[in-house]
From TrEMBL:
Coiled coil: none annotated. The keyword Transferase applies. It is an enzyme of class 2 (transferase). Gene3D superfamilies: Bira Bifunctional Protein, Domain 2 (3.30.930.10). Transmembrane segments: none annotated. Monomer. This is Octanoyltransferase LipM. Pathway: Protein modification; protein lipoylation via endogenous pathway; protein N(6)-(lipoyl)lysine from octanoyl-[acyl-carrier-protein]. It comes from Jeotgalibacillus proteolyticus. Its EC number is 2.3.1.181. Belongs to the octanoyltransferase LipM family. It holds the Pfam family LplA-B_cat. The keyword NADP does not apply. The gene is lipM. One of its GO terms (molecular function) is lipoyl(octanoyl) transferase activity.
Length: 278
């Protein structure tokens, strides 16, 4: 049986506003039937702090430090917590909610999409598996996270290696379409990451940072040999193809499509009104 053809876009490094605008544009085009399901790989220039749709900037984020470090800043259209996009491969998946492979449940759809990421880690020789919170306390932590930092703890069906979270993802559903995007960490600078958030005291900050080191890890801390970005891209592209049983066909945006992305970028993700609205 022929495999379903999905589109694949590697948009390289781009500004935070462009990255979020392109994800939104892909969601729009897919909802209108203009494009097939799509998987996209991308990076960030400059390195960027993205925050979840519902986070409060003034309460949670140290914007002085963000500016001092020359980082980009953007509010995602998806939920979740703060992510420092630096030494990573970022991915997004755009697929209609009524696709035959997509369960109605958000959690189960997360699991299906994340099969591609799981396969990618395994192709890199890593013993990754899905996190399933077991205790009442772990389940409550998902509903009421104690930290503004995304990688502080695994959520349902996120990827872990030796008990430590190694990929973080977020999902939104709009116009009948699922948009899931996330970070696959190659390396991480914990000091930089934890300098970007507000804490009640230095003691609390140190405690959270130490706990984070026990709960999260980057690929190159666990891999038998250093993994380059190109190696990661090849592994996760193949991982998505195998995990979702699809064929990915590369695609470049047209000039008209680029103009639409830039319009969304100008109207939303480049604006303080959007990024600081809560």
């Amino acid at each position: 049986m022929d495999k379903e053809i999905w589109r694949f876009i590697d948009s390289g490094n781009a500004s935070p506003a462009y990255n979020m605008a392109l994800d939104e544009a892909l969601l729009d085009w897919h909802s209108e039937g203009k494009i097939p399901p799509t998987i996209r790989f991308y990076g960030w220039d400059p390195a960027t702090l993205s925050i979840g749709y519902f986070q409060k900037v003034e309460k949670e984020i140290n914007m002085e430090k963000v500016k001092e470090l020359g980082l980009g800043f953007v509010r995602r259209p998806t939920g979740g917590r703060g992510v420092l996009h630096d030494q990573e491969l970022t991915y997004s998946v755009i697929v209609t909610e009524n696709h035959p492979k997509m369960p109605a449940s958000v959690t189960e759809a997360y699991r299906v999409i994340s099969e591609g990421i799981l396969n990618g880690f395994q192709l890199l020789g890593m013993d990754a598996y899905f996190a399933v919170p077991k205790t009442e306390e772990e389940r409550n932590d998902l509903k009421n996270p104690r930290s503004s930092v995304c990688f502080d703890a695994p959520s349902w069906y996120e990827l872990v290696v030796e008990g430590k979270k190694i990929a973080g993802s977020a999902q939104t559903r709009q116009k009948g379409v699922i948009l899931q995007h996330g970070s696959i960490l190659l390396d991480i600078d914990e000091e930089k990451l934890f300098s970007l958030f507000h804490y009640p005291s230095e003691r609390v900050k140190d405690r959270m940072k130490n706990a984070f080191k026990q709960k999260a890890v980057a690929i190159n801390k666990m891999a038998a040999r250093p993994i380059t970005l190109d190696q990661a891209k090849k592994a996760f592209l193949k991982g998505f193809e195998e995990g979702l049983e699809i064929k990915l066909v590369p695609y470049k945006l047209t000039a008209e499509e680029q103009a639409y992305v830039e319009e969304i970028m100008d109207n939303r993700y480049s604006n303080d009104e959007w990024n600081f609205k809560r």
